[in-house]
Design brief:
The chain has 11 helices and 2 strands. By secondary structure, the chain is mainly α.
Length: about 170
């Protein structure tokens, strides 16, 4: 839309530049804005709102090329997001790219495997806790119980929960 100022036709961006000294901002997506300003961690998180995993892959590529790495909070968020979308291959890839993980990150992925009925992967990740010197917690056992409900084989989880000291919890008996 053009405006007429003092008999001359001007573009809106020219008017804005004349009034403020800056050109009019162009419309751009939040992800593009964040990437253009070098805010890669924020752009990576915002890219998940689009529900297009290719956009997240592109932003993640820029993220890693810029020297960033997934911290526990951002990694856990991405793993949770892709687990909810049943894209466990991507969730696992983000897990593998993390330089360090904690029990919360591992529980997130175990829960994702359980919800997608990937019982073997859930137990494989559970067994890897011993190698990382991380102690399973109540959320770990709860996710394993959910995984076993699909196979009607709760005895395994019951034995594991007793061995790690969760036998008195109400959720184990229910």
């Amino acid at each position: 839309m053009k405006q007429v100022l003092l008999g001359r036709v001007r573009e809106p961006s020219q008017c804005m530049k004349r009034l403020t000294g800056f050109p009019a901002p162009q419309f751009m997506t939040p992800v593009k804005y964040l990437v253009n300003n070098g805010l890669y961690p924020q752009a990576l998180r915002a890219s998940t709102d689009s529900l297009d995993p290719r956009l997240t892959d592109q932003v993640y590529s820029l993220f890693t090329k810029s020297g960033y790495f997934l911290d526990i909070f951002l990694g856990s968020y991405l793993i949770s997001h892709f687990s909810k979308l049943c894209d466990l291959q991507r969730a696992h890839q983000f897990f593998m790219d993390m330089p360090e993980t904690d029990i919360v990150v591992r529980n997130t992925l175990i829960s994702g495997y359980a919800k997608s009925q990937e019982i073997e992967n859930a137990f494989r990740l559970f067994r890897s806790l011993r190698h990382c010197e991380l102690k399973p917690d109540i959320f770990t056992v709860s996710s394993l119980i959910k995984a076993c409900n699909f196979t009607q084989n709760n005895e395994i989880t019951h034995v594991v929960s007793i061995k790690i000291g969760f036998s008195s919890g109400a959720f184990v008996s229910s």
